[in-house]
Amino acid sequence: MRWVKQAIGYWCDDIIEGKCRGDGICVAVLDTGIARHPDLHGRTVGFKDFTGSSVKPHDDSGHGTHVAGILAGNGTASNGLYAGMAPGADLLIGKVLDREGNGNVDHVLNGVEWILSEQTRRGIRIVNISVGTQPDLGATQKRMFLDAVEDMWDSGLVVVVSAGNYGPGEGTVAVPGSSRKVITVGVPDTELPLVQKRKKNVNYSGRGPTKECVVKPDVFAPGTGIISCNGKYGRPGEHPYTMKTGTSMATPVVSGAIACLLSKYPDMTNVEVKLKLRESSVKIPGTESGWGILNVGNLLRV
């Protein structure tokens, strides 16, 4: 993930001096869970499985562990080479998706209720949801999902969600990324690394406008060919890191950057965070449908 940080201006003076690592910030993640990994050791302050009955942290998919590594991995297994965005942040993990990355709205809604119940006790500031609905989901369920994430925003949490991978046509942003309140993250047109190069450019990120004419995504971040923690590490032949692509990967890049911001300015509200993110983003080709691409150097300057 080092190249991602450099690409978005991550190496500002505060980061180099270790002042803004997300210390003291708790981020809730709703995903496929979290596996044991040296980069994430001792970082999980709470875990709950809404897809089964397990009480121990686990991840039968690997998606959630990859997301957690992008957000808050400390790079132990790579001597810091693949450290995440906010290696000082704590994680509260809700498993709402199964081994195939599938789930139902009820699991997500239960996860949201849990986060709200733990918000004060755990000091949760940010919620990362790299989950989006399928296009054919019923209108009632979509509305319930939207209401739930907006309840979290109204409670003062910074809610960061993925735009989904159903783009690039208009109106393809996934729920809950269509919410006008939450921060929706997309991926700009991206040239693939050589190891994944089947075609020159990838253009998959969901885009607005929504049915309510809301411009989406709000902000863009790298999400193609991202190297992060391998949830299968520890099994024979498994490397500590693996590569994945999608708006799911871009979302924790932004959540981690916000954790760094809040560790520097802990009194900022979620509305102030959103405004700061908007004014600090940089327009580049492929991000015209939103504010621009994340630039953490700009974000941390006042």
Could you characterize the architecture of this molecule?
By secondary structure, this protein is of the alpha/beta class. The strands form three sheets. Strands 2-3-1-4-5-6-9 form a seven-stranded parallel sheet, sandwiched between helices. 54% of the residues are buried. It is globular, with a radius of gyration of 17 Å. The two termini are 26 Å apart. α3 packs parallel to α6. The longest helix has 18 residues, at 105-122. It has a single domain (2-299), classed as Peptidase S8/S53 domain (Rossmann fold), CATH 3.40.50. The protein is built from eight helices and eleven strands.
Characterize the overall form.
globular
Major β-sheet annotation: 7 strands, parallel
Strand line-up of the largest beta sheet = 2-3-1-4-5-6-9
In total, the number of domains comes to: 1
- Give the termini distance in whole angstroms: 26 Å
What fold name goes in the CATH topology slot?
Answer: Rossmann fold
The CATH class name reads Alpha Beta
Radius of gyration, taken over Cα atoms and rounded to an integer in Å: 17 Å
The CATH level-2 architecture is identified as 3-Layer(aba) Sandwich
Low-confidence stretches: none
Annotated CATH homologous superfamily:
Peptidase S8/S53 domain
Broad structural category: alpha/beta
Strand content: 15-25%
Helix content: 25-40%
Mean pLDDT: 90
- DSSP helix count? 8
User: SSE string, helix = H, strand = E?
Assistant: HHEEHEHEHEEEEEEEHHH
Task: Give me the oligomer status.
Answer: single chain
Number of strands: 11
